[in-house]
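Module 6 notes. Inverse folding takes a fixed backbone as the condition and produces residue identities as the prediction. Think of it as a translation problem where the source language is geometry and the target language is the twenty amino acids. Below is one complete input and output pair. Work through it position by position during the lab.
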């Protein structure tokens, strides 16, 4: 209607019965379409009827006015017409006046049709919910749960100008801020949220002004919080911004959809990781070492790990397999800082498997990633059981004294070539041959003092060899001091003279000779020093 005054024309919309649908305020315009329609002007009514029936524009002159009739279409159906009328001016030809009205009718009718076809507020919510479902579904196909949360936050930022913070649960039971949108002011949100401050799982709560300040969020804005309730969704989502009460149901639907998407993503991630690993583990054209290395590379890529390691060992400590760089995990289990996972699995006939994974320092393990890691370990365990069946007990007994030393040297060389420092430790017991079985018993006890992916085995009667991955020589002395104290506390070995020697290799270091032999020589010096 504002265009009527600006353009000095009259505008009207009529339905298929040619009844005016607009009730504009009177304006000082010489042409009045409702009056022309009411007067029953035959030429005008015929032009309107033709435009509606044929869907084509019509032009007609009525009295001293030039009139254009433009059909209005929604859903490919003509539902009415837009009528434009303008008093002809002296000096302006009828053709020029008709052309100006046609041009205005063209873009005005497009705008009116777009408005008529725009959804209602309820339909708009459904459209956005459908769009969010597709958006989160695409993310769940290729990304982790933290990336799904980030995608969700970006959608709310664009659609409703809201900030979203994602807090993930750690192994310590607290929720740590893990997702913050680019450009968001993180200083207005606390780095951690305690479990006791959270709403129950699946419930969405609008936080009072007093609680907003108590939790550590910047005051002055609405704050809505929901703890996702799915088995894999150990997340708390905090939405900050202007959230009217009427918009809370819609926000609740968005968050429920996020919860469902993360739950489905776990199954998708596990299936994708297992399928990519199986291609390598079932490839008979490659050796078992190449099979395991290819599968471990797939795991590292799928979980975005900074390092990963896999070891399969015999009851006597002989390493059937050892690949990857093992993270430094002191205890057998998840590390307290929440970014390291060690999974130990017993295998048949006393064999064992250890899988270790480490994420970057700025990334904490989510429950989703923890579940994927354990599913990956299940497949590695099944594959390792096949290795155990292939190794007979007789062959193991014959090969142990010599093959363990060869394996130790081979694995050490592979690690150094891969850029990882290693240290070999040799522990010798004097006169232990007088009491058979002591050496083998000590192999098991010393393994309890080491990391899951370190190798410990018998080099010979009275001699134990250990391979420490990712351990420079400077760190090895602290390890040997701890081992010496453990042996001195043991009633069995306290009766024997114990000597410990070490030998290390750094990446790029060119040194001839076997590491185990160097460690033996260092152990001999240890004996000589003890007698001085």
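Target side of the pair, the amino acids:
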């Amino acid at each position: 209607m504002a265009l009527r005054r600006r353009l000095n024309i009259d505008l009207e919309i009529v339905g298929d019965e040619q009844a005016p649908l607009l009730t504009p305020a009177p304006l000082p315009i010489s042409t009045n379409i409702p009056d022309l329609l009411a007067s029953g002007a035959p030429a005008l009514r015929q032009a309107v009827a033709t435009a509606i029936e044929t869907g084509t524009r019509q032009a007609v002159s009525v009295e001293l006015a030039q009139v254009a009739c433009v059909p209005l279409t929604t859903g490919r159906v003509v539902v009415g017409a837009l009528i434009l009328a303008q008093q002809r001016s002296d000096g302006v030809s009828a053709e020029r006046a008709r052309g100006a009205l046609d041009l205005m009718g063209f873009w005005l009718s497009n705008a009116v049709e777009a408005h008529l076809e725009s959804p209602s507020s309820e339909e708009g919510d459904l459209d956005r919910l459908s769009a969010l479902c597709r958006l989160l579904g695409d993310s769940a196909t290729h990304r982790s749960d933290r990336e799904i949360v980030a995608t969700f936050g970006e959608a709310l930022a664009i659609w409703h100008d809201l900030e979203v913070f994602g807090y993930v649960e750690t192994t310590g039971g607290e929720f740590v801020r893990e997702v913050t949108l680019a450009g968001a002011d993180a200083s207005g949100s606390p780095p951690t949220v305690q479990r006791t401050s959270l709403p129950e799982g699946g419930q969405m709560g609008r936080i009072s002004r007093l609680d907003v300040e108590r939790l550590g969020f910047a005051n002055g804005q609405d704050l809505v919080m929901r703890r996702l309730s799915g088995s894999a969704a150990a997340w708390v989502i905090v939405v900050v911004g202007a959230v009217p009460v009427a918009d809370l149901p819609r926000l609740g639907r968005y968050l429920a959809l996020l919860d469902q998407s993360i739950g489905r993503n776990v199954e998708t991630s596990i299936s994708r990781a297992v399928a990519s690993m199986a291609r390598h583990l079932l490839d008979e054209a490659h050796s078992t070492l190449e099979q395991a290395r290819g599968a471990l590379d797939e795991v590292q890529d799928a979980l975005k790990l900074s390092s990963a390691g896999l070891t399969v060992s015999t009851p006597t400590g002989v390493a059937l397999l050892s690949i990857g760089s093992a993270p430094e995990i002191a205890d057998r289990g998840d590390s307290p800082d929440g970014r390291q996972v060690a999974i130990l699995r017993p295998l048949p006939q006393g064999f064992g498997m250890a899988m270790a994974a480490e994420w970057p320092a700025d990334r904490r393990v989510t429950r989703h990633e923890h579940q994927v890691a354990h599913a990956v370990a299940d497949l590695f365990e099944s594959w390792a059981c096949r290795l155990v069946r292939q190794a007979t007990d007789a062959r193991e007994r014959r090969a142990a004294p010599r093959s363990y030393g060869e394996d130790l040297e081979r694995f050490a060389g592979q690690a150094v070539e891969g850029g990882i420092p290693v240290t070999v430790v040799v522990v010798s017991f004097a006169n232990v041959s007088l009491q058979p079985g002591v050496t083998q018993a000590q192999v098991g006890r010393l393994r309890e003092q080491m990391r899951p992916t370190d190798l410990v085995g018998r080099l010979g009667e009275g001699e134990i060899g250990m391979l420490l991955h990712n351990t420079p020589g400077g760190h090895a002395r602290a390890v040997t001091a701890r081992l010496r104290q453990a042996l001195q506390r043991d009633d069995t070995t306290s009766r024997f003279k114990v000597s410990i020697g070490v030998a290390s290799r750094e990446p790029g270091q060119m040194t001839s000779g076997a590491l185990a032999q160097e460690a033996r020589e260092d152990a001999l010096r240890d004996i000589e020093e003890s007698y001085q």
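Reference fact for the lab report: DSSP finds 14 helices and 18 strands in the chain.
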